[in-house]
Amino acid sequence: MSLVNRVALAIFVLDQLSKYLVVHVMRLDQRQEVGVFPPFLNFRMAWNQGINFGLFQSGADVMRWILIGVALVIAAWVWLWVRRERHQPRVLVSAGLLIGGALGNVIDRLIYGAVADFLNMSMPGIDNPYSFNVADVAIFAGALGLVFYTGRPAKAA
Fold first, then answer.
1. d(CA 46, CA 48)
2. Contact call for residues 78 and 123 (beta carbons, < 8 A)
3. Beta carbons of 149 and 91 less than 8 angstroms apart
4. Catalytic site residue 117?
């Protein structure tokens, strides 16, 4: 199994396992909030029908399917792109992070109709209203890595 696939699988499993534990075992969907290390880290349930920070959120089911399609197209494109030519390992890891995170959020949209966000980080005196999940962190880190690490030739083996 390639490095991209291993990283994507690890992120996907970690993301889905964390969401299962939070939603089905901790029942955060019913409890809404649990202070883990307040105010710095809390579990705060949010069902995100849009993209980051709720952008493009819509009650219309068509938006759900559009976002699923966009995520699958991007994940497939990145996967095919990194397979076409030789890349540095950090590019492959970045691609795996993005792909695994995107697929994790796709599964949420298929199962729940929205993405399960639950990680909330705030500071004393500042209450951050937004929540995120493991997949979101992976997507952000992967996209950032692809921006910073692509365009540089891979070293010969």
1. 6
2. no
3. yes
4. yes
Asked if residue 129 has a cis previous peptide bond (ω within 30° of 0), the answer is no
Domain ranges of the chain: 3-149
Please list, in sequence order, all residues whose beta carbon lies within 8 angstroms of the beta carbon of residue 60, skipping any fewer than 6 positions away. Answer: none
pLDDT by 10s per residue, the chain, length 157:
899 999 999 999 999 999 999 999 989 888 888 877 878 998 999 888 866 545 555 566 788 888 899 999 999 999 999 999 888 999 999 999 999 999 999 999 999 999 999 999 988 888 888 889 999 999 999 999 999 998 755 555 5
| Both tokens assigned to 3 | 């490095």
Kindly name the residue from 15, 61, 127, 136 that is annotated as catalytic.
Answer: 136
The catalytic residue among 15, 61, 108, 117 is 117
3-class DSSP state for residue 55? coil
Q: Rounded distance, CA 75 to CA 98, Å? A: 7
